Amino acid sequence: MNRSNIEWTEVTWNPTTGCTKVSTGCKNCYAERWANMQHKRGINQYRNGFDLTLAVERLNDPLKWKKPQIVFVNSMSDLFHDKVETDYIKKIFSVMNNTPQHTYQILTKRIERVKDLSDSIFWSDNIWLGVSVENNDFVERIEILKKTFAKVKFISFEPLLSKIKYNDFTDIDWVLVGGESGGNARKVEKEWIKSIRDNCKRQNTAFFFKQWGKRIFNPNPKDPTIDRKHPFYAKGGCMVDDKIYREYPNIE
């Protein structure tokens, strides 16, 4: 278990590592940078750098955790990558099914494979499913997400690279938004963020704004969350119109 700096989760669990780029949002992948750094340090789990690798030694980790955790599954990969064997995905789901005390958050860009596997995996109530959507070219991922069996469905608009014209959040429980960070980060616009926020409010969907990404993207240079000492510090700050949005789904 690794404690996470990602604002919307508590810990990360990586039964696989490594991935390949499939769309625009992958260009400046943070996981690729981190994996290559760990590879240079000689960390065994990253012995193959960012090539897809099964971390079988990590598979049963959640069974050992006594305290309930909110778990981001495969922060360093995509569980539904085509090189992850179906049998291994089933083993991961078995671990999640058998640890109902934990809440698992799966985020994928490969939602089509989820659809293909829908009849062979069991979505217990503690497994949340999300899709990454960086711009309007990939909003069809949301429509596929809506047809899955996950009890809690969410969208991650991160990195947000354009105004999102799609506005039907029916059956969507949670929306995350974040600007890109890092040296080559692409700019996020306030208008894009507010448009998604307002759609969430109209449709009673929980809204979580993670970060502006870089200080220069934040239109408010006095945003106190830019300061690393602030309890809600985020890269570039995380206020929109002087408000922090860190809502979670209302799960019954």
How would you briefly describe this protein structure?
Pfam families: DUF5131. This protein has 252 residues and is α/β, with parallel strands linked by helices.
The CATH class assignment is Alpha Beta
Widest sheet, order of strands: 1-2-5-6-7-8-9-10
Count of DSSP H/I helices: 5
Distance between the termini: 27 Å
Write the CATH architecture name: Alpha-Beta Barrel
Rg result: 18 Å
The ordered string of helix (H) and strand (E) elements is: EEEHEEHEHEHEEHEEE
Strand segment count: 12
Q: Tell me about the biggest sheet? A: 8 strands, mixed
Please describe what this structure looks like.
It is a single chain. The chain contains 5 helices and 12 strands. The chain is α/β, with parallel strands linked by helices and about 250 residues long. It has one domain: TIM Barrel. An 8-stranded mixed sheet has the order 1-2-5-6-7-8-9-10. β9, α5 and β10 form a beta-alpha-beta unit. The model has no long low-confidence stretch (mean pLDDT about 95).
Topology of this protein?
Layout lengths: L1 E2 L7 E3 L2 E2 L12 H11 L12 E2 L15 E4 L12 H12 L5 E6 L2 H7 L9 E6 L7 H7 L5 E6 L16 E5 L11 H14 L2 E6 L27 E2 L2 E2 L8
Parallel strand pairs: 2-5, 5-6, 6-7, 7-8, 8-9, 9-10
Antiparallel strand pairs: 1-2, 3-4, 11-12
Protein name: Phage Gp37/Gp68 family protein
Organism: Moheibacter lacus
Relevant terms:
single chain, 252 residues, alpha/beta, TIM Barrel, eight-stranded mixed sheet, two-stranded antiparallel sheet, 12 strands, 18% strand, Phage Gp37/Gp68 family protein, DUF5131
